[in-house]
Amino acid sequence: MLAYTAKRLLTLIPTLLAASILVFLFVHLIPGDPAAILLGDTATPEEVAQLSSEMGFDHPLYIQYFIWLSNVLKGDLGTSIFFGEPVLSVIGSGAETSILLASMTMIWIILIGLPIGILSATKHGTWIDQMTSSGAMLAASIPTFWLGLYLIMIFSVTLGWFPSSGFPSLSDHGGITNLRYLLLPSLTLAAPNTALIIRLVRASMLDVSREDHVRTARAKGLHPTRVAIKHIFRNALIAVAAAFGFTFAALISEAVVTETVFSLPGIGRLVVQSILRRDYPVIQGVILVIVVLYMVINLAVDLAYARLDPRVSLK
Q1: 273 and 263 in contact (C-beta within 8 Å)?
Q2: Phi, psi (5° rounding) for residue 79?
Q3: All domains in the chain, ordered by first residue
Q4: How far apart are CA 22 and CA 16, in angstroms?
Q5: Whether 128 contacts 119, CB under 8 Å
Q6: pLDDT tens digits, residue range 16-62?
Q7: Which of 97, 239, 269, 63 is nearest to 178 (CA)?
């Protein structure tokens, strides 16, 4: 296990290097001049050129990349052009919201997706299966911005049960009760992802139910519930566990629309605002952090496979 982990960590180095090049080039292909945006429409070309020189944008692109990469290796993602603060601090200010939103969304996905997926698989071919499958397809097809707006209209505007926007930190007045600000956003973000888990659990359990050991368990006269939980769901959980890992990472990077609709100060909204402001250091830093997050989760999923399935050999 240790040898495999060390080997995988070494393979991350060229992957991260390639990812850093792509991130840097992608960001610098965005039209617009950060210096011109900061100075406004009244700035003269000389003032724009002077500010661009001060920010280092007058250097060739490859030199800018090596300067940025050397700073990244030192743990410095640069300084935000708009905020004037270190990029890590800017990202950290939005990380609490995004991580809590992703965590609450995962709770909804587990509480709703797993039971319905199991029910759909055990009632395969019945009206229950057809209803749950149709409901999952409907949830997956609903645009998140549309669902979010309707949840705001019903539960915030009409009923007044939950806040419609914003999120005060848990360290602010209210403490843990501030999580109510994330209830509607987490439900909005959970809808399409829950549908995916329902379909995945159903498909995985149906595949496992056709294997020999399941037929043997049924032939022995074991109770159907025990067969479904111990022999089918337990083995189907391997594929589902991998999906959970990637879903959590995706929730952080794909919450742009939800955070915008609910005006949440998260990483997704930060990226959108940074693109509009041409804040290159923040965009590069956020994308690089998300890439690293995906790689770490990918490694964790591979290692978890060996724990969940003894047939997997890590060499």
Answers
A1: no
A2: -120, 135
A3: 2-73 (no CATH), 94-308 (1.10.3720.10)
A4: 10
A5: yes
A6: 888 888 888 777 776 666 666 666 666 677 777 776 776 666 677 77
A7: 97
